[in-house]
Amino acid sequence: MTASNLSPETNASAVMAAAATADQRPSPAELARAMLLAEKSVRGQQLDVKALVGVWQLRFTVPKKPRLKDDQPTQRGFYIPRLVQAEIGFQTQPAPTPLAIHNQLKLGPLILRLTGNAKPVGKNLIAFEFNHVQVSGGRFTLYRGQIHTSPLPPSEQIGKAAFFSFFATASDYIAARGRGGGLALWARTEANMP
Fold first, then answer.
1. Backbone φ, ψ for residue 32 (5° rounding)
2. Range of 24's domain?
3. How far, in Å, CA of 6 to CA of 172, rounded?
4. Count of Cβ atoms closer than 10 Å to residue 108 Cβ
């Protein structure tokens, strides 16, 4: 079956899966288009929160508010340089917030790590808050502290919280739109492959 015979959703999934591998890189415009088509095709579908559990490395982002215009993306986005390692991780935990979240940025020996709580809201939103920060240099912790944040708001006030609206979850990648309107594609790290 050639790519032209595939449905837009299947083709979008194939492009995102290719981008999640370290050795393939569809063009930024092609990947942004695939992500927008995937987002459009899953509106209203329920997110399986268990599919998020694991550690995911950020591969690609479209930081502005992209959309499709004449079937083409209005923003192209870019691949994250290999020198920078950015990851997000989700882990189940007991109530009241069913997920723990971490976000980590590594540049050489420097690591900035934020940790906190997350919870599903509605069909495909994950609201989150970070309440701890740690800065490390190599094996040494340079700073560790708490971030003063308000607790996650009730579901009806979720617009006040940070959130991701997930539109693609596969065994090797996840993709979402953030509260600011940008898109992101993460690949499962090898240490967490099923």
1. -60, -40
2. 3-192
3. 20
4. 10
Domain containing residue 111: CATH number: 2.40.128.280
Q: In whole angstroms, what is the distance from residue 30 CA to residue 151 CA?
A: 39
Which pLDDT score, from 0 to 100, does residue 15 have?
94
CA angle 139, 140, 141 (to 5 degrees): 125
Q: How many domains does the chain have?
A: 1
The residues, any chain, with a CB within 8 Å of residue 2's CB and separated by 6 or more, are none
Return d(Cα 94, Cα 105) in angstroms, integer.
26
Burial of 13 from C-beta contacts in 10 A (0-12 / 13-18 / 19+): buried
Residue 102 has a pLDDT of: 97
Neighbours of 110 (CB within 10 A): 12
Q: Each residue of 79-129: pLDDT tens digit?
A: 999 899 999 999 998 877 789 999 999 999 999 999 999 989 888 999 999
Cβ-Cβ contacts under 8 Å for 10 (sequence gap 6 or more): none
User: pTM for this one?
Assistant: 0.88
